[in-house]
Design goal:
By secondary structure, the protein is mostly beta strands. It has a domain of 97 residues: Beta Barrel (Lipocalin), CATH 2.40.128. The chain contains 1 helix and 8 strands. The chain has an 8-stranded antiparallel barrel. β3 and β4 form a beta hairpin. It is elongated and about 100 Å long. The N and C termini lie far apart (135 Å). 10% of the residues are buried.
């Protein structure tokens, strides 16, 4: 009898082990998340500078992929430079070429449409205090001008002035 009990126990354990294996179905393919390509706007931030006290930049990324960057560099005196160039959006990064391809800046898009400066190695820049060189989006350039409702009166139009016809 003990052989039958042992055989029954082994069968019960084997059945429990076989039933406990959970077969997982493959997960469905998820749609890739599209990164928005509409980055035109005004951005302001600081860039690293080894030979100066501060380097602040205000740049406008236009819809035609052109860039105008105003750079204020503080050394013994403050120097303002206006740099022009183009930008390209690839995946989650923005590559900016300025001054006839002599100067290159790479940024990664981060939260709220802001930009984080990337080193030439492709990693986020951190200063000695561990702070990133982030550019904050000031506004997003409108894609189309807002049309005025033609049913509304134009407040800027000249209004007729009443004249006294008895004096004529």
């Amino acid at each position: 009898m003990s052989g039958k009990k042992l055989l029954f126990s082994l069968c019960a354990v084997a059945l429990l082990v076989a039933c406990s294996e959970e077969k997982s179905e493959p997960l469905p393919d998820l749609q890739p998340v599209e990164i928005p390509k509409d980055v035109p706007g005004l951005y302001s931030g600081r860039l690293p500078c080894d030979d100066c006290t501060s380097r602040m930049v205000r740049m406008t990324l236009s819809e035609d992929s052109s860039v105008v960057a105003t750079q204020l560099t503080l050394r013994d005196t403050m120097v303002t430079d206006t740099l022009r160039g183009t930008y390209v959006v690839t995946d989650s990064s923005i590559k900016i070429s300025l001054s006839d391809n002599q100067l290159h800046w790479n940024f990664k898009r981060i939260k709220f449409g802001n930009l984080r400066y990337m080193t030439s190695a492709g990693v986020p820049y951190e200063d000695k205090d561990g702070l990133h060189a982030d550019f904050i989006r000031i506004y997003k350039a409108p894609l189309k001008p807002v049309a005025r409702n033609s049913a509304e009166p134009d407040s800027s139009a000249e209004k007729p002035v009443a004249t006294d016809s008895s004096k004529e």
